[in-house]
Write the structure tokens for this entry.
Amino acid sequence: MAKTGEPILKVVAQNRKATHDFHIHERYEAGISLVGSEVKSLRDAKVTMADGWVEIRKGQAYLHGIQINEYAQANRWGHEIARVRKLLMHRHELEKLGTKTQLKGFTLIPLALYFKGSHVKVELGLVTHKKQHDKRATKKEADDKREIDRAMKSKNSRS
């Protein structure tokens, strides 16, 4: 249970593909500029974010590739499904991320979309692409950890 002063977090969507395809170096939190029908649709968790990415242009951050489906009860002029959405971040964070994304291989992608209290937030990750052998090594480490956990669990249940 959250304390009275802490906002409640409700995760709407996660980019599970991101941990498989990318090395995550840093994580950031940003607000997102939405219209009313988009917020209603997010409350129903009608969002796809697997192909999302962030562009920093002229000192502003823009979120591309996120699809927030139409809200059924909204009027016919609700919102465009795959529009570019502005991210709300501090200027010093934008400048820092702008310089890092100019470096070779760094990309900024959305990792999660969630409600923090009544505000919609996006967790961003500064990432680099994994090579095929890195993906294999990550999968092998996860399999080995799973085997160790199974062995420890069976040993503890016999005792």
In short: The mean pLDDT is 84.
